[in-house]
Amino acid sequence: MRTSIATVSLSGSLTEKLTAAARAGFDGVEIFENDLLAAPLAPEEIRARCADLGLTVDLYQPLRDIEAVPAETFARNLRRARHKFELMRRLGADTVLVCSSVDPSAVDDDALAAGHLSELADLAADFGVRVAYEALAWGRHVSTYDHAWRIIEAAGHPALGTCLDSFHILSRGCDPRGIEDIPGEKIFFLQLADAPLPAMDVLQWSRHHRCFPGQGGLDVAGLVRHVLRTGYDGPLSLEVFNDVFRQSEAGATAVDARRSLLMLQEEAGVAGPPAPVVPTGFAFAELLTPDAEPLAALLGALGFARTARHRGKPVDLWQQGEARILVNTGAAVRRDGTRLAAVGLESPDPAGAARRAEALLAPVLPRRRAPGDAPLDAVAAPDGTELFFCGTRPGGWRADFEDVEHAPAATDVRHIDHLALTQPWHHFDEAALFHRSVLGLRAEDSVDVADPYGLLRSRAVSNADGSVRIALTVGAAPTDDTVHAQHIALATDDVVAAARRFRDAGGPLLPIPANYYDDLAARHAFADGELDTYRELGILYDRDEHGALRHCYTRTIGGVFFELLQRDSAHRGYGARNAPVRLAAQHAAQTHAGG
């Protein structure tokens, strides 16, 4: 299907927005009136710019507070509308969005509203314009799509139809099944947006917290299916009011927007990208560091052994069980500390995974490959992390490494349980959608975590059996000064033994305040001496209806730390209850180290 995006969904000048939409692959745009008013270009020049970029102008919006008003007010409204229709003719737009009135002078009179909209459609038809009437969720008297449709039916004008907006419909809890009673040719336009499900005034919710489909909690795909059953053949268009998007670079937002529509078409049963290839495990996690010694000491204390070295690059492979850590000290490494730079994902079909990623606009990364190097496809996640699709057959990427003589690794760690990736504040929702759509992972509910210096948001994505889990985290305050280290969680069958071995090998465990254990004693019953052991080793404890989680943390090196984690097989959480304690302990440790 054709795709479109409202210019209000992007940041920047109108020309910047048009360029971003075209580069992301959109077919058309909705021109938001404020964007046109602020543009230095004449409507004819904007029309030409769109044509040069391969964009159609699918909608001009909004025309507000038209119907069911006193006669003198309606006469002024028609004069205003005439001017807009003349402008639209210059712009090359043939459909105008008319929102249901919020004018305090508007009356609750459907017959009057129908008469006014019919007169407006008469005038519009003289200019070759169609009127798409939309029920605002906070409209003074018309706030539901079915009410708006009854008025349109009563008006009975061929140039008058409806605009359906997923936010206005779903935010009020309206049943979208009734959409199927509307003839498809009378649905002049379809606007799409998702949103989280907070408890707030619907107008505030609409103006500041909409997001692209798949990033919130509304069933946008279900609504689209109902619309398509009517025979609607217009574009799928995005209209998203969001404070974060207004402050983000337009190009990246447009790509995220286009990806959301590709994913939406797949979920709605319209032809979409190639089928998802869900990763089955972590092949490796790659750390970049300017100084390998502290990291080598930490990995050694955790029981890892340096088992191999890359044949042509300064990259070492450290392994314990099925957990593999690559340590890269190449010339391209930034001098500002250790960071998690790449993740290898085991895939049953690496080429298929790469094709889907490319179809969903994930940036494919060029890779310099020496003769004999394993062919690995990689894409960039929104935060810049490189994701490699690794085959599960023997050899593969591991053939690029030569074994080195080493002492046996310990047996405490079995595999990587999960990765925690810190996102730039303006990429959090984009990251969740990226990992869902490109990798086929399932997104869990977003949770807020109290940090001593503000709230954090966290949302985990995982495959069905939990062999791939990624926790995405961002500071709630929109500032790049909110920086939290990434971490690698290592699964163990006995966290007490693993933590004790790490400590006895000189590894620095994160100390946890005594107050935490006093509270733990009040909430749970423990065997004799068990809580004392946890206190000694800084082990945190959580329990839900599925079982227990026991975990502890290393001190941070650069921008990375490790977690030792023992979970009962049915426990799928990440210890969110303990996160504020861990964060406070990390802040205290950093403060102590600094002075």
TrEMBL record:
Its UniProt pathway annotation is: Aromatic compound metabolism; 3,4-dihydroxybenzoate biosynthesis
Task: Give the Gene Ontology MF terms in alphabetical order.
Answer: 3-dehydroshikimate dehydratase activity; dioxygenase activity; metal ion binding
Please list the residue ranges annotated as the VOC domain.
281-392, 415-555
EC id: 4.2.1.118
InterPro entries to which the protein is assigned, alphabetical = DSD (IPR043700), Glyas_Bleomycin-R_OHBP_Dase (IPR029068), Glyas_Fos-R_dOase_dom (IPR004360), IolE/XylAMocC-like (IPR050312), VOC_core (IPR037523), Xyl_isomerase-like_sf (IPR036237), Xyl_isomerase-like_TIM-brl (IPR013022)
> Is Endoplasmic reticulum one of the keywords?
no
On whether Lyase is a keyword of this UniProt record, the answer is yes
A Pfam entry, by short name: AP_endonuc_2
What is the documented function of this protein? Catalyzes the conversion of 3-dehydroshikimate to protocatechuate (3,4-dihydroxybenzoate), a common intermediate of quinate and shikimate degradation pathways.
Record-given protein name? 3-dehydroshikimate dehydratase
According to its UniProt entry, this protein's organism is Streptomyces griseoloalbus
